[in-house]
Specification:
This protein starts with about 25 loop residues before the first strand and ends with a strand. The strands form two sheets. A five-stranded antiparallel sheet has the order 4-3-2-1-5. Strands 6-7 form a two-stranded antiparallel sheet. It is about 20% helix and about 30% strand. A hairpin with an 8-residue loop joins strand 2 and strand 3. It has one domain.
Length: about 150
């Protein structure tokens, strides 16, 4: 399996509040450490804007699992079975459509690879260590290890 190559911007562009579609799943991506190496991704369903009278710019989201199970914000008997999140439209930089969330995870993967490379370089003093395994034809069960 192979993914198509793509150019990834060094920054993320959140989906503007005006472009969110009711009933669509968006992904909230947070990081559990300051280096942004431990991603935490949660699917949310967009319910709409300003669902209560007097609100201005309130974006409502519901956890995707309860939405899938048929729980709706309009059903007071089952509302406690769901998790709802309110995001202010002028602060909508936390919910992303799938492809944008995927690109964030790709950036995370690149950061993780760089960190692993730096760590391995520090452990070997900047030199790569090679181990060569040699099996001889005259003694197939004997193994000779050569390291530099």
């Amino acid at each position: 399996m192979r993914f198509e190559a793509r150019e990834i911007k060094p920054y993320i562009e959140p989906d503007p509040a005006e472009e969110l579609e009711v009933g669509t799943v968006y992904f909230q991506l947070n990081y559990l450490n300051p280096d942004c190496l431990l991603p935490d991704i949660t699917p949310w369903v967009y319910l709409g804007r300003d669902l209560n009278e007097g609100e201005d710019g309130a974006l409502y989201f519901q956890d995707a699992a309860s939405y899938r199970d048929g729980v709706r914000i309009s059903d007071p008997d089952r509302r406690e079975e769901a998790i709802f999140q309110l995001v202010q439209s002028d602060n909508q930089n936390v919910m992303y459509e799938f492809e944008k969330a995927l690109e964030q995870l790709m950036r995370c993967s690149i950061r993780r690879q760089k960190r692993e490379h730096q760590a391995s370089s520090q452990q070997t003093g900047g030199r790569r260590r090679w181990i060569l395994v040699v099996r001889t034809t005259f003694e197939p069960n004997a193994i000779c290890l050569v390291a530099n």
